[in-house]
Design goal:
alpha+beta; 9 helices
């Protein structure tokens, strides 16, 4: 991607045929400290069109579209989504929206960005995010929550915002993730607060209703790794590349948001419909693994 002039529209990122529907997924219910919203799924309205996507720098007019995407991610977490959206837009040199080329309505179909938790540590939404995630983590494992708190306090963490509609072609992940890596590399040469020790990702996942989220407390390292692999084989990721980040994660936990979203349908491995619970999976990945993940993303879409 052309990163030389962030004030101008970024270069076209991907071209593909997509199936666009009136509803993106089973997760159309959202809530935060400001609002609660929900809608029913309409599976009858489907339109097949050829579309070409491009990356653009977030601007003020994108506020509503970005906020609506974020609301889908932060279900059951109480934080100021408006402030978080403002921070994303304010980063003129980091982050991209996904839009359709020459779309008169200028709708947003995805957002990718990275926020420094240290740089924005005094922002209300970042304080709330840390507090909420620590609470969710403690419910999963006291040992993990202690480690997570230590990382929050001592390490420089870049929070990856990676959300898009489910019907966006998967190949678009390659230029967008490569772009965000290049932007961070450029930014850290000017501001050490972008020289991250870890990346944090909040992923939308589905698990069969019979599977409980894993708890790592008291397990040895080999047992942790084995259980992590076994448990992950039962997980579906809304964004396929999130699984690749998970495989490189040093710390991870999940919390159930099914009550806010309703049951979903999955089962891609057995080619049978399964009743799935909706989760959010939090993962922290050492930045030394970031390039490995980008390489694997490219392999996945080749």
């Amino acid at each position: 991607m052309n990163l030389q002039d962030k004030k101008k529209k970024k270069r076209r990122a991907a071209a593909a045929t997509a199936t666009l529907t009136n509803n993106d997924s089973n997760e159309e219910s959202s809530s935060d400290s400001e609002e609660n919203a929900s809608s029913d799924e309409d599976t009858d309205s489907v339109e097949n069109i050829n579309v070409e996507f491009e990356a653009q720098t977030p601007v003020d007019n994108d506020f509503h579209g970005i906020k609506q995407l974020l609301l889908r991610v932060f279900l059951t977490l109480h934080l100021d989504i408006s402030e978080l959206t403002d921070i994303i837009i304010s980063q003129s040199s980091i982050g991209s929206t996904i839009k359709i080329v020459d779309d008169e309505e200028d709708e947003i179909y995805g957002i990718v960005s990275v926020l420094s938790l240290k740089k924005y540590k005094e922002k209300t939404c970042i304080k709330e995010l840390k507090k909420e995630l620590l609470s969710k983590c403690k419910s999963s494992s006291h040992e993990l929550s202690t480690k997570l708190k230590k990382l929050f306090n001592e390490k420089n963490i870049g929070f990856i915002v990676n959300e898009r509609f489910i019907n966006i072609p998967s190949q678009i992940a390659v230029p967008f993730h490569n772009s965000i890596w290049e932007e961070v590399e450029q930014a850290k040469s000017e501001d050490k607060l972008h020289d991250f020790d870890y990346l944090m990702l909040l992923s939308k996942t589905l698990k069969p209703s019979s599977i409980e989220p894993q708890k790592k407390e008291g397990e040895g390292s080999k047992a942790k790794k084995k259980k992590k692999q076994e448990n992950n084989s039962e997980v579906e990721y809304t964004n396929f590349e999130d699984e690749l980040f998970f495989k490189e994660s040093e710390l991870s936990f999940s919390y159930n948001v099914t009550e806010a979203t309703g049951l979903a349908v999955g089962g891609s491995w057995n080619f049978e419909d399964q009743t799935m619970n909706s989760y959010r999976t939090v993962m922290l990945i050492p930045t030394t693994k970031w390039k490995n993940v980008l390489t694997e993303i490219e392999k996945m879409v080749d």
